[in-house]
Amino acid sequence: MPLFFFWIISPGESVLIIVQTLNSFGIRSLIWLSLIPGVLLAQTGAYTIYGTVRLPDGSPAVRVTVMLTGQSGISRQVFSDDMGRYQITELPQGRYSLTAVNREMPNQVTGQVEADTGRGFQTRIPINLFFRQRSDETTEIVTSPVLSTKEASQKVPKAAQKAFDEGVKAGSSQKLDKAVSALSKAIELYPEYFQAFAERGHVRLAMGKPAEAAADFTRALEINPVCGPALRGAGICKFGQGNYAEAIKDLESASTIEPNVARTFLLLGVAYLSTNRPEAAHSALARSVSLDPKGSVRARVYLANLAIQQNQPQEAIAQLDAYLTDAPNAPDGDKVRALRAQLQQNVRQQ
Fold this sequence. Notes:
Elements: H1 4-9, H2 38-44, E1 47-54, E2 65-70, E3 75-79, E4 85-91, E5 95-101, E6 108-109, E7 112-116, E8 124-126, E9 129-130, E10 132-133, E11 141-142, H3 149-152, H4 158-172, H5 176-189, H6 194-206, H7 210-223, H8 228-240, H9 244-257, H10 262-274, H11 278-291, H12 299-309, H13 313-326, H14 333-349
């Protein structure tokens, strides 16, 4: 794996709220029952709201409480699993509000997210939650996501979805061979399962098989060109090959589809640096830090390097100080401290 990958996947602690239809390690598909009228669905309680609770860099919020309330008085609470996933089943048709609570980190909150099961014929409604740091800002309300045309038209067989879920679960438990096997089965059962291709690609990246991963991301994007996880994965593969210009194209597309994933902007900033685009690099790196200061702590070093190139030693010192504060035990901590001391000495001599 490229060295940068460690920093990209490091979990963050500052948080933001957004609703996404795509996420970096697992998308459950929707089964459309277009012949069943909404009244029947309401009577049988056939709706499910599910999703993932995550930090902005995509890392899961484990064992947090997800709370659902409905206008009809329904109230449910569930815990997210080890991958930050939750599922609330047997819901009648109606409007619902969801929030999540992290009792171990009470300074982190989500805004109120609203979902309406009556907006279409889908029976499984994806709602993803992201935390943010508590502030005095007013509560955010985000409507349920708009599905891509390709995703909305999917009719995934139950057996394929079951295999997909097994693959995601195996991947989250680091049983990578088992994950690949299950995801391959899902693809065999439903060849247009672009989510499964993207999932398998990320698993293969974790196995150190970038060529096979790249093939999976390519196939996912052939089926659905706006699959965020596949675009991000393709960008990682191309970056690892030194193909920075093409990596930038994929990462820019991923950042447009999922504009609040910090690690996309971190990698995008590094790719911009590699193509001598300092202004774009600064913007992307700063965005990464604003979304997730601790999870994107490595961006501070790149920002410091940019400041040095632009003869802004005080700004470089500030970035290095922030880096050392958020990553006091970083492997390169001594080198960073030495660089900071040298910069400080130069400032005093001016």
